[in-house]
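tool=predict chain=A
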Amino acid sequence: MIDTVMFDLDGTLLPVDTDKMIMDYFKAISKKISAHFEPSFFQNALFTASMDMINNLDPDKTNEEAFFDTFLKIVKYPKEKLMTIFNDFYENDYKNLGLGVCKNEYAKMSVELLKEKGYDIVLATNPIFPDIAIKERLRWAGLDHTYFSFITSYERMHYCKPYIEYYKEIIYKLNKDPQNCIMIGNDVDEDIVSSSIGFKTFLVDEFMINRSSKDISTIDRGNYKDMYEYIKRLPVVR
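tool=predict ok
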């Protein structure tokens, strides 16, 4: 029986163009740190370290550790000083990136309805950001982090999407049965891949990403209202 629903964040609960959001993030953090690094050098270092983090498959290395292993080698700058700047950015400047975001009420209603029905709700966002940044983006979506029993941040996880190890790690950490889980997301490669280990899936197609042009004809999918109606049809679990 389905008892757990996992949501992607960007392009799913948070109605944004993910690529644009990432570009805006790169520009904003580069501006923040421009007194210490030339912007293009910093952006290249950030991109290279992020890609190494995404492709890291070392089970003994968190995503945060994988990122800084590469990033510090490139920038040659003390981590403690970098963390002071990064933390200040996420606590202050980062909020400005959400000013133009319009939350979707069906997304919020979907989470609230699942909570009422007794489902365990997991925020299965790609863990390339720290916890503080993910919780801030949840606020942009009109959601409180307490709705979720677990949030995949770069401090907690050892794998990233689209690797199936990411979903296996969630299952292991939370002691879940994939057959009892639904993954809801907007990215065919990153979210619907969870079906390969037994998840049921729902594809939100308003901000759909299908870089590999996969056949989606057999996948449950629809817009935000359709997602809400899909959740309405789920039975109460308690």
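The two ends are 12 Å apart (CA to CA). The CA atoms of residues 113 and 232 lie 8 Å apart.
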